[in-house]
Write a structure and sequence with these properties.
mainly alpha, two-stranded antiparallel ribbon, 13 helices, 2 strands, 3% strand, globular
Length: 260
């Protein structure tokens, strides 16, 4: 019986997941899992319009939870696939570079800042006569991903990056991506704001909202201690910095928290 079990062909899906888990840092991997779970949930009960950021409801009806939950909802299957293909390299490099805890705070700050500025802009437009702006939607993970791409590109030691056949200076790479995206879907206010938030973060304008290395170390030895033993949790003290943009940053080099 044991011989028969050992001779069974390995499940390709299980093999792929094992390889993906081994090379993808914890926060990036968990973010993709949460996005996939919310999409599966939407097949049975769609909470999208009840949870995305619509200024009239978020502020006018004091449904403030929308400001936090909106990135997790409103993602189609196609968007989920593209987000997965994009977030895996970009998110992994940043997580190897700054650590799981620090990246988690950066993502939370940029997401909340994007939603708050979106609400402010929509109310400003309404005060100028465009009342329909109160029902504009900031939804899905695309705005957060756009902000993340800005931070990653501005942190990279590279000078240019290829976009199809064109070498684009990294300073303008997110703008080129946004222009390309807008050609297919039309301009999106939430993504434009997120891109601006990403540039503010890259320039250090949001530094007051980020934890110090001492705070990160205290959290990782305190309230986050149980997470540090999970597979590929990148400790702040083990973050690679600019070395994360080397051809093959490895979890073994970046974390010492152990493998589960």
């Amino acid at each position: 019986r044991r011989a028969m079990e050992s001779s069974r062909p390995e499940n390709p899906l299980a093999s792929w997941w094992s390889d993906f888990s081994a090379r993808t840092p914890l926060l990036t991997r968990c973010t993709l899992q949460i996005l996939a779970a919310t999409w599966i949930t939407s097949l049975f009960t769609d909470f999208t319009y009840s949870l995305v950021n619509v200024p009239y409801y978020s502020i006018g009806k004091l449904e403030l939870y929308r400001l936090v939950l909106s990135p997790m909802f409103g993602n189609s299957l196609f968007s989920l696939v593209v987000i997965g293909l994009t977030l895996t390299p970009y998110g992994s490099r940043l997580e190897f570079s700054m650590g799981s805890t620090h990246l988690g705070v950066v993502l939370a700050v940029m997401s909340l800042a994007t939603n708050l500025i979106f609400v402010f802009v929509c109310y400003l437009m309404a005060s100028l006569g465009s009342y329909e702006a109160l029902f504009f939607q900031c939804q899905g993970f695309w705005p957060v991903l756009m902000a993340l791409i800005v931070v990653e590109s501005q942190s990279s030691p590279e000078s240019t990056r290829r976009l199809f056949v064109v070498e684009v200076p990294l300073k303008y790479y997110p703008l080129a991506l946004y222009a390309l995206f807008s050609m297919f879907t039309g301009p999106r206010l939430d993504m434009a704001i997120a891109m601006g938030v990403g540039y503010l973060n890259a320039q250090g304008r949001l530094a007051a909202c980020k934890p110090t290395p001492q705070q990160v170390a205290a959290w990782e030895s305190g309230c986050l201690a149980n997470l540090t033993s999970h597979q590929n949790f990148i400790l702040g003290s083990s973050a690679q910095g600019s070395s994360a943009w080397s051809p093959s940053p490895t979890p073994e080099r970046a974390q010492e928290g152990g493998m589960a």
